[in-house]
Amino acid sequence: MDLVTHLPVEIWFWINPKQADTHWEDDLLNIVKEKTLLLLDRGFYHFAFWQKLIDRKIDFITRIKKGASYQVEQVLTSSYDIKDRIIKIGSGTKKTPVITVRLVEIRSGKAWHSYLTSVLEPRILPPYVVADLYRRRWRIEDAFCTVKRLLNLSYLWTGSLNGVQLQIWGTWLFYAILVDLGDAVADELEMPFEQISLEMIYRGMYHFSVAYEKGLVTDPIKYFTDPQNRDLGIVKRVRKPNVRLIVSPFPATQRSPEEFFF
Questions:
Q1: Residues whose CB is less than 8 angstroms from the CB of residue 257 and which lie 6 or more positions away in sequence, other chains included
Q2: Residues 161 and 107 reside in one and the same domain
Q3: Which tens digits make up the pLDDT trace of 68-118?
Q4: Beta strand ranges found along 79-138 (DSSP E)
Q5: How many domains does the chain divide into?
Q6: pTM of the entire structure?
Q7: Is 189 within a domain?
């Protein structure tokens, strides 16, 4: 899934329902281009695979496993709420070669969130940007939720292999069209794509079709952006205030005076 476009880059199909994602590592290496940044979940926690990515100049961000053993090579930032270090991890075997990565740890309340990235230079990828990008890895889950729940891919129409493949392919094609429509609506309203509800656009297509049949409208983008149709709920409600992202490569401790006293 492309983080920027929200569209699938590649769709693979296996008939084995127990096929693990890690069996697609070779396929992933074949399609990912140089200077790409991958957001990987811990299902791809394989040092040999990471080394192949690094050798091909493909960077990644992932989560470190609890209790992992590593050796600190250089401390970039160390403060109350952030630790940014270059480490060596791995035992030196064929399956777990020793690789040099960056460990970024950020405090959130009483909990620490730890990330690994092959981008060693914090001026290229600041620590808070590492955390912000990895949080956006959830977009692939949003896409799965949309095609399964909203577009009904969780229910198969047939038991034949060809029919299942046709349903999967057709559903993802419709998803791509829905994303393009949502992106066009966001551009027309001059707001980020994340503020547009694909679900309400999908459900609003019924109302557009009724108006179209009556000869009242012809353009779905103009229809969804018309102020008179705000009750369709196309624009999401802002529930939380926007938080400024710290993009400094060596951020200082962000604390209020009260936090110095216990």
A1: none
A2: no
A3: 999 999 999 999 999 999 999 999 998 899 999 999 999 988 899 999 999
A4: 82-89, 99-108, 111-117
A5: 2
A6: 0.86
A7: yes
